[in-house]
Specification:
Elements lengths: L2 H19 L2 H11 L4 H22 L3 H4 L1 H21 L5 H27 L3 H32 L5 H17 L6 H7 L4 H6 L4 H31 L4 H25 L5 H22 L16 H7 L8 H12 L5 H29 L2 H4 L4 H25 L2
Helix pairs in contact: 1-6, 1-7, 1-8, 2-3, 3-6, 3-16, 5-6, 5-8, 6-16, 7-12, 7-15, 11-12, 11-15, 11-16, 11-18, 12-14, 13-18
């Protein structure tokens, strides 16, 4: 089993998934113009993706080990390649929701396989955490490349043709996976007992409950910023829509950068001290920017580099948030037996989706009833709560390891 080939396969698969998952907004704008569908209809594309992710991960997570991690990745890549070719060939709206149903379903199963495979190819919790941060860093890099790829293709061709390029990438990932062997013997025996109930049996452990709360809080924080930062930039810093979009890229890029750095730091320092440092940084940066922008009077600028310095600073808040999610996921997975990683990943996906939706909705409600500036005080609450929850999370995960890995 070549670990280098496996890692490259996982990186490329995750990179392609990130491009598809993080360009829905661009596709929504294009189908409204090209296919003459209503905004309400186009807006349902997010639901096709998100509901597919939740339903499939909830229903099938426990059965992935029985089917096989490598086989799941192969069939997922085949399905996505077919979906990309479909939307590239057929310029009608009905092909778009089909693509996102395929993408959401494939992502759910492939993420379960990817996270589970990490447990098979790493030997320690530090190595697991380091690789998880690097993997999620690659995912965020794909999130950056996706909009740029669409932008280039739209400028030189029709937006549908972007999917021919993506299908080439998925085909490359598929070929690489076909020639990559993954030793799944560690989970073969336990996989025979896979069942829907197996996922919920994990809830008997206090460590899992605390993790679920930590994951819920983190995704709530990240989605609060990720969804509403462009609105904050437009209303407070008076940036144009194009400028706000570019600053969101800075936010995503800062997340990717910090995850790559954390992949290195996690092998040398305690994960808890690193995460608390990042959370304190996120809290202080957010609070300082909010205080400095009280009654701020900004003027519209033609160029992004003329934007207020605080706009650049606030977009870098992602640097202090990036490593937290892959780290807390790595901790719970590395403490559990490899045969339970698929079930645990199913729980991760479901509760992460709930947390993300909650964060976006809460900021939306506050910004509607008060102002977008005041709404951004809300993320400070889950940041503090998460910092406090990480302490018992470490104690419970260490206790779990002592009790189950003697």
């Amino acid at each position: 089993m070549s670990k280098i080939k496996i890692k490259i396969s996982l990186f490329l698969s995750y990179f392609v998934l990130a491009i598809l998952l993080n360009t829905v907004g661009i596709v929504i704008a294009q189908v409204i113009d090209d296919y003459n569908v209503s905004r309400l209809t186009a807006g349902t594309l997010e639901a096709f993706k998100d509901l597919s992710i939740m339903v499939v991960s909830f229903a099938l997570a426990s059965f992935v080990p029985k089917f096989g991690y490598r086989r799941t990745l192969i069939y997922g890549l085949i399905a996505i390649t077919f979906g990309c070719m479909l939307i590239a060939s057929i310029t009608e709206y009905w092909a778009v929701p089909i693509l996102y149903m395929i993408t959401g379903s494939s992502f759910a199963l492939m993420k379960i396989s990817v996270y589970s495979t990490v447990g098979l190819i790493t030997k320690s919790q530090q190595e697991h955490t380091g690789f998880m941060n690097t993997l999620e860093g690659v995912f965020m890099t794909g999130s950056l490349v996706g909009p740029l790829l669409f932008s280039v293709m739209i400028s030189i061709s029709h937006w549908n043709n972007t999917y021919w390029v993506i299908s080439i990438l998925t085909t490359l990932a598929l070929i690489l996976m076909l020639f990559t062997e993954i030793d799944e013997s560690q989970v073969k025996e336990e996989a025979k007992d896979s069942s829907f109930i197996k996922m919920f049996s994990l809830l008997k452990y206090p460590m899992v409950w605390v993790f679920i709360l930590c994951a819920f809080l983190y995704v709530m924080i990240e989605q609060s910023f990720g969804t509403w930062l462009p609105t904050f930039n437009r209303e407070i810093f008076k940036l144009s829509q194009a400028q706000s979009a570019s600053f969101l890229s800075i936010y995503a890029g800062s997340i990717a950068l910090s995850r790559f750095i954390a992949g290195y730091l996690s092998r040398r320092f305690s994960w808890l001290s690193i995460q608390l440092f990042y959370l304190v940084g996120a809290f202080l940066l957010t609070l300082i920017v909010l205080i400095q922008t009280i009654d701020l009077t900004a003027t519209e600028q033609s160029y992004w580099y003329h934007a207020p310095p605080l706009a650049f600073v606030f977009s870098m808040v992602g640097f202090f948030l990036g490593p937290i999610y892959p780290t807390i996921c790595s901790i719970v997975l590395s403490k559990l037996e490899t045969s339970r990683h698929s079930s645990m990943t199913g729980l991760i996906i479901v509760f992460s989706a709930i947390g993300g939706t909650s964060g976006s909705m809460i900021i939306g409600v506050f910004s509607h009833n008060f102002s977008v500036h005041n709404a951004f005080y809300f993320p400070l609450i889950p940041i503090v709560l998460l910092a406090f929850m990480l302490i018992p999370y470490k104690k419970l995960s260490d206790k779990f390891e002592l009790e189950h890995h003697k």
